[in-house]
């Protein structure tokens, strides 16, 4: 029997009920590119519930305990995780509350065979160490791609239209129209570019096209000519070649050594003065202090994202207080709709692993001592991801 440790965020501090379920949430049978979505119909939870918190347990307890497995659910990613690791077979966590599986932790967990990301993005796992240890690393690819893409579009509009400061004027009892519109523009006609055009990046491009913007992208894998023609895309071989042409840049790339620190002083300095930067990918793709400097100097007109390093971010993190930001805690991919999908996908991965049947190729990041599936597509075989 297996021991599964699930690291999840705490329940609502305000004591809200664990569910804000609607009469029903839309059922998705297939993802946009045709892949079958995991079905929640036979799962032991109600779609629309707060599955990602400690009390929600990703809906896994009954399923696992009926088979004799042990489920340990914790929110402490440090001391409690370290105590549990030596006899743990599986660790599950979310990108929004990642269990950082460093090489040192993996070395102290001789039984650890599977790391599952309930969501998308496995950079909290040292993939080199996982490969060396013969582990499998999997994530619920596709599960919240659209959730994140919607968040990106919301953040772009929020910055460009100066929504958050204008909302605050209302909260503060004011009616300062000039102050509200002094930094407000139309998105129409702007040049918008995405760094990476995978599932999320392409979904962002599709959602922005109706705004009559001029769309740009850069990616290791060029999109089909038919997609470029349909969306009116301009391809650039590199981020450095793309960003000088853009008024808005959105980052939708995985974190690895080739992208870590990419948006530092040099790249930010090459952008048009007054560009907006959106980052829902990973915080370390942007240099923390360079972002602050660019906002303070006016080189960036705004920065919005919901990824931080570390997570949760400390109270004194400079991104909390820098000017013209639209930061959120890491929530873009954790809507109640998305939680339904990644909880169902997590169970599907566990069902496959526990029964000894193959895990879906699109869920795999590392398998059999090598990058596999989605991991082989997202990461260079010569360069592994870093924590």
UniProtKB/TrEMBL annotation:
The site (Important for catalytic activity) lies at 282, 330
Localization = Cytoplasm
| GO annotations of cellular component type | cytoplasm
The D-isomer specific 2-hydroxyacid dehydrogenase NAD-binding domain sits at 153-332
An annotated Gene Ontology molecular function: formate dehydrogenase (NAD+) activity
Q: What is its EC number?
A: 1.17.1.9
The main enzyme category here is oxidoreductase
Reaction it catalyzes = formate + NAD(+) = CO2 + NADH
The biological processes this protein is annotated with in GO are: formate catabolic process
Task: State where NAD(+) binds.
Answer: 145, 199-200, 219, 254-258, 280, 306, 330-333
Query: Which keywords label this protein?
Result: Cytoplasm, NAD, Oxidoreductase
> Does the keyword section mention Oxidoreductase?
yes
Which SUPFAM superfamilies does this one have? Formate/glycerate dehydrogenase catalytic domain-like, NAD(P)-binding Rossmann-fold domains
Q: Residues that bind substrate, according to the entry? A: 120, 144
Q: Where is the D-isomer specific 2-hydroxyacid dehydrogenase catalytic domain?
A: 62-360
HAMAP family referenced in this protein's UniProt entry, alphabetically: Formate_dehydrogenase (MF_03210)
Q: State what this protein does.
A: Catalyzes the NAD(+)-dependent oxidation of formate to carbon dioxide. Formate oxidation is the final step in the methanol oxidation pathway in methylotrophic microorganisms. Has a role in the detoxification of exogenous formate in non-methylotrophic organisms.
Similarity comment: Belongs to the D-isomer specific 2-hydroxyacid dehydrogenase family. FDH subfamily.
How the protein assembles, per its UniProt entry?
A: Homodimer.
- Name of the protein this chain belongs to: Formate dehydrogenase
Species this chain originates from: Kribbella speibonae
């Amino acid at each position: 029997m297996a021991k599964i440790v699930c690291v999840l965020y705490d329940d609502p501090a305000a004591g809200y009920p664990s569910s804000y379920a609607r009469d029903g949430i839309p059922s998705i049978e297939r993802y946009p590119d045709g892949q079958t979505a995991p079905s929640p119909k036979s799962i032991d939870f109600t779609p629309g519930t707060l599955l990602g918190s400690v009390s929600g347990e990703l809906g896994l307890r009954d399923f696992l305990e009926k088979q004799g497995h042990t489920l340990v659910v914790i929110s402490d990613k440090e001391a409690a995780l370290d105590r549990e690791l030596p006899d743990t077979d599986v660790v599950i966590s979310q990108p929004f509350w990642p269990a950082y599986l460093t090489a040192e932790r993996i070395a102290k967990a001789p039984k650890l065979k599977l790391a599952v990301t309930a969501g998308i993005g496995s950079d909290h796992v040292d993939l080199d160490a996982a490969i060396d240890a013969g582990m499998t690393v999997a994530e619920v690819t596709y599960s919240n791609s659209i959730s994140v893409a919607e968040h990106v579009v919301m953040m772009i509009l929020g910055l460009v239209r100066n929504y958050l400061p204008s909302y605050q004027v209302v909260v503060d009892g004011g009616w300062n129209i000039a102050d509200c519109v002094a930094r407000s523009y139309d998105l129409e006609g702007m040049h918008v570019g995405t760094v990476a055009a995978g599932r999320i990046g392409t979904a962002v491009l599709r959602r922005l096209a109706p705004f009559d913007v001029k769309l740009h992208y850069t990616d290791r894998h060029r999109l089909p000519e038919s997609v470029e023609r349909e969306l009116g895309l301009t391809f650039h071989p590199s981020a450095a070649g793309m960003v000088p042409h853009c008024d808005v840049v959105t980052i939708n790339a995985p974190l690895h050594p080739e992208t870590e620190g990419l948006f530092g002083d040099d790249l930010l300095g090459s952008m048009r003065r007054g560009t907006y930067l959106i980052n829902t990918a990973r915080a370390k793709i942007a240099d923390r202090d360079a972002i602050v400097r660019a906002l303070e100097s006016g080189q960036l007109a705004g920065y919005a994202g919901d990824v931080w390093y570390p997570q949760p971010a400390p109270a004194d993190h400079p991104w909390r207080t820098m000017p013209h930001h639209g930061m959120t805690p890491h929530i873009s991919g954790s809507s109640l709709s998305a939680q339904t999908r990644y909880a169902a996908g997590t169970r599907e991965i566990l069902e496959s692993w526990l029964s000894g049947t193959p895990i879906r190729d699109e869920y795999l990041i590392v398998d059999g001592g090598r990058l596999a599936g989605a991991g082989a597509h997202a990461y260079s075989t010569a360069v592994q991801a870093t924590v």
